[in-house]
Amino acid sequence: MRPVYFYGAISLDGYLSDNHDNLQWLFDTDLNQQSTYEAFERQVDTVVMGRVTYQETLKILGDEPLYPDKEKNYSVQAPSRSS
Questions:
Q1: Which of 53, 49, 50 is nearest to 70 (CA)?
Q2: What is the pTM of this model?
Q3: Tens-place pLDDT, residues 34-63
């Protein structure tokens, strides 16, 4: 059995995107030139992300492939959140 790892960038309300499905806060976060995501990404061969995050990431990437060196990419849909 393969190990399962979780890597999350989640706001205090438990969501990745804001109420308008925007991820800009994540890109605006000052990490002081330090990120652990690249090291994490090298450990995994399958990526699972939420449907909205997946769709927004594809918009940002444009023609670039999403995780081209990964064996599989999955998108899941969570129940809708209340306003």
A1: 49
A2: 0.58
A3: 777 777 778 888 888 877 778 878 888 888
Token couple for 53: 């995050």
Determine the Cα–Cα distance for residues 2 and 81; give it in Å rounded to an integer.
32
> How much is the average pLDDT of 13-34?
75
43 touches 5 (CB < 8 A): yes
Its sign, for the CA torsion 50, 8, 41, 66, is: positive
| CA nearest neighbour of 59 among 7, 16, 23 | 23
Q: How many residues does the chain have?
A: 83
Q: Which two tokens stand for residue 54?
A: 């997946």
Q: Are 20 and 56 in contact (CB under 8 A)?
A: no
Q: Between the CA of residue 39 and those of 29, 55, 79, what are the distances in Å?
A: 19, 24, 31
Paired tokens of 6: 């979780």
